[in-house]
Specification:
It is a single chain. It is built from five helices and three strands, in the order H-H-E-H-H-E-E-H. The chain is mostly helical. A three-stranded antiparallel sheet has the order 1-3-2. The chain has helices spanning about 15-35, 40-50, 60-70, 75-90, 115-135; strands at about 55, 95, 110-115. The longest helix is centred in the N-terminal third of the chain and has 22 residues, at about 15-35.
Length: about 140
């Protein structure tokens, strides 16, 4: 019995090869566009927004997500630090290690992050793109 959910491909072999190449080209073009250093994911955008105009260490960024969302959104350090590492590799954030806290609680050394000029630019581009999507109107036929 034929699987009704399986999509049939009625192309002759030559056409199938052309279609495969076209699909590969469009996927490759998409990958090329998304692999540029200034392209940011929604989560990267949110982290950059959190760092805009201030320097924070990782747990402060996690606290910001939780507090701003009223506890509905939480970010673990296991999620945050790979994002920060990607952003730093792209040159969108910079970091520095601070000495041990001087308060009575002490604690471990902290790594502080701040958005770079390039990060601010990438964030502005993402915001502009989102605004353009909101304002876009389909062409009338």
């Amino acid at each position: 019995m034929k699987n009704p959910l399986k999509r049939s491909n009625n192309l002759i072999p030559e056409q199938a090869g052309q279609a495969k190449n076209a699909d590969t080209q469009s996927v490759t073009a998409y990958r090329d566009r998304s692999s540029t250093d200034d392209q940011i994911s929604p989560l990267e955008e949110e982290v950059l927004s959190t760092l805009l105009g201030r320097e924070l260490y990782g747990l402060q960024i996690c606290e910001a997500f939780e507090q701003v969302s009223g506890g509905k959104r939480r970010m673990s350090v296991g999620t945050l630090y790979p994002v920060l590492a990607r952003l730093e590799k792209k040159g969108l954030v910079s970091s520095r290690m601070a000495s041990r806290p001087t308060d009575s609680r002490g604690g471990a050394r902290r790594k502080y992050f701040q958005i770079t000029r390039r990060g601010s630019h990438a964030l502005a581009e993402a915001d502009q793109f989102r605004k353009q999507l909101c304002e876009w109107q389909p062409a009338h036929a």
